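Consider the tokenized backbone below.
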């Protein structure tokens, strides 16, 4: 005959087995509340990560276009400056030659004037006086638009971030997990590797994606 203690034990085991079976079926059917909660947040974390990468990509393209526009504007200003400088040098040379002939060879100057060559000194002096340097300083550079060292540093930072074990997982079994506005959960960690960790709450275990913690979608602290 079964004793009351054995009967209670059997009843508890049957209840636990039934609950476990319900949890397994819920997990298989995708109806587990904890599974659904963390699955949705993991999906959201991946979407956020993808959106950030896409935004970074768009910003880099926009920055490249702006850099190109600035270079074109600077080149246009440089061209205008060169045209002004050439005009000034030509005027200076003509003024120098005409002044030389007029002051040192007056007979030759009188001859040229008699032949219809009339040099307007006042006009050339005014042109010399009004020459000015454009307000935009042009700096020529052969550097690449994006420095390769900066690209390598960004890639290394991203790679290290992806591979690091979150601090809350180091030397700690019990942690607190918080996702968005959901209540904070305290549970036990196990089977921690580079990509996932098992998180057990009230006897129920789910698998955490460490990338969600690395990139801030899930907040993890030591309990």
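A designed sequence for it:
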């Amino acid at each position: 005959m079964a004793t009351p203690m054995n009967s209670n034990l059997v009843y508890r085991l049957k209840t636990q087995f039934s609950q476990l079976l319900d949890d397994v079926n819920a997990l298989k059917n995708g109806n587990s509340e904890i599974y659904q909660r963390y699955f949705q947040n993991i999906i959201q974390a991946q979407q956020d990560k993808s959106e950030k990468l896409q935004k970074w990509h768009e910003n880099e393209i926009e920055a490249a276009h702006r850099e190109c526009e600035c270079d074109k504007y600077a080149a246009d200003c440089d061209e205008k400056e060169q045209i002004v400088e050439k005009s000034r040098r030509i005027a200076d040379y003509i003024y120098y030659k005409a002044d030389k002939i007029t002051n040192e060879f007056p007979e030759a100057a009188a001859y040229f004037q008699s032949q219809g060559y009339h040099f307007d000194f006042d006009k050339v002096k005014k042109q010399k006086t009004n020459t000015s340097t454009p307000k935009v300083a042009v700096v020529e550079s052969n550097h690449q638009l994006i420095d390769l060292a900066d690209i390598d540093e960004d890639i290394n930072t991203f790679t290290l971030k992806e591979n690091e074990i979150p601090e809350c997982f180091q030397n700690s079994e019990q942690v607190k997990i918080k996702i968005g506005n959901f209540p904070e959960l305290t549970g036990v960690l196990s089977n921690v590797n580079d990509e996932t960790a098992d998180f057990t709450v009230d006897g129920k275990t789910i698998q955490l994606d460490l990338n969600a913690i690395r990139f801030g979608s899930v907040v993890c602290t030591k309990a």
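The first strand starts at residue 174 and ends at 178.
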